[in-house]
Amino acid sequence: MTTELIRHELQLAPRMARLGTETAFEVLSKAKALERQGRSIIHLEIGEPDFDTPPNIVEEAAAALHAGWTHYGPSAGLPELRQTIAGYVSRTRSIEVSPDEVVVVPGGKPIIFYAMLALIDQGDEVIYPNPGFPIYESMINYAGGTAIPIPLRQERDFAVDPAELESLITDRTRLIILNSPQNPTGGVLSRRDIERIATAIDDRNILVLSDEIYSRLQFEGEPFSIMSLPGMQDRTILLDGFSKTYAMTGWRMGYGVMRADLAVHFTRLMTNSNSCTASFTQRAGIAAITGDQTPVDLMRTEFERRSRFFVDGLNRIPGFSCRMPKGAFYVFPNIEKTGWLSKPLADALLDTAGVAALSGTAFGRFGEGFLRFSVANSMPQLEQALERIASWVQQNL
Ligand SMILES: Cc1ncc(COP(=O)(O)O)c(C=O)c1O
Predict the structure, then answer these.
(1) CA angle, 246 as apex, 240 and 248 as ends, to 5°?
(2) Is residue 258 lining ligand 1, measured as CB closer than 6 Å?
């Protein structure tokens, strides 16, 4: 046997070539690297509230840790939390949800992951919003499905066109993904749009993954869920969670609501992957839903105020034109008139202006011509970002 160390070739499973990523994390690490070199960077790339988790939730978690909530719990979640979520979803979506239809998971993302693993096989078609949260397309491809983008257009204020959706439905369609309020556009589906989408689906055996993680951050009117429509509850997997609503991104807790016979399979996927969501975190989740909701309202009001400020500022910069988002905490300006493509423009703004934003194409090919800025940063930082972009534009366009 040779004493020389052999470096073996890394042999990945071919499916890994189909797995995508979320560019926000890559841009964040590039921006951090620039900061380590002494550069000043304004972070408008990452999608997380800049607020602290409300203190009543933090205190409940600390108390739960001291009280010994430090062990495994049931894979589908603590019964008390499933009950609390069932009550909350029943109230907010005007439907009857029972605890066995709720699966608590570490964040909203696992619901996307498990939906694809549980439902999608080779050749199954999944219709998903584009531009949209990049994990949808990544997971459809990873599961071997065929990703069918439904373009979201500025002219429709980035809402799905129900007629276009209908034209994309085939005998192979297994799942349709909806997201409202939407990342990255801030678009919202109206009740009328959602009713027309349900009519397009008709009585086909197609499931809808309704990503409502920003439902509490809708600026005007009440959010409406497709799960509330007659005949749709059984065909909807509702995704919601704590990350955005209660500024709990780092806690990792979300949930899915779905028919009980599907929930057992999501639970099996949980047993196989995570065992359970952290027990003390779940105790805090009960406090989050049942406690004072004022912090949520304050955050929503603040995100709306900042969005308006940033949109107005962008609209004063030559080459940029921006609509006011209807929810979430992103602004999504059209930059076509700058003459630049989205990715080189995002790179240039980071490298030379010190403003970290995401290219619209980080959310799919129909994001070309746009940038995404997160307004989860302070007003002074947003103001400075606008100044930096304006002066970059003056010097470079
Ligand atoms: C549309 C959408 N769905 C799901 C998620 C995942 O949220 P979580 O951090 O709870 O996994 C995000 C996070 O950015 C999102 O934007």
Answers:
(1) 85
(2) no
- Classify the phi-psi angles of 357: left when phi > 0, otherwise alpha if psi is within -120 to 50, otherwise beta: beta
Is 109 near ligand 1, meaning CB less than 6 Å away? yes
**What gap in Å lies between CA 326 and CA 333, rounded to an integer?**
14
The 10s digit of each residue's pLDDT in 270-294 is 999 999 999 999 999 999 999 999 9
Distance CA 190, CA 199 (A): 14
Spatial separation of the C-alpha atoms in residues 11 and 249, rounded to whole Å: 33
Please state whether the peptide bond connecting residue 184 to the residue before it is cis, i.e. omega within 30 degrees of 0: yes
Contact present, 303 and 297 (Cβ < 8 Å): no
Instruction: Specify the 3-state DSSP secondary structure of 283.
Output: helix
Rounded Cα distance, 373 and 314, in Å: 11
Query: Is 185:155 a contact under the CB 8 Å cutoff?
Result: no
299/306 Cα distance (integer angstroms):
10
In this predicted model, what pLDDT tens digit does every residue of 122-162 receive, in sequence order?
A: 999 999 999 999 999 999 999 999 999 999 999 999 999 99
Q: Tell whether ligand 1 has an atom less than 6 A from the beta carbon of residue 180.
A: no
Distance CA(364)–CA(134), nearest Å, equals 7
Under DSSP, is residue 397 helix (H, G, I), strand (E, B) or coil? Answer: coil
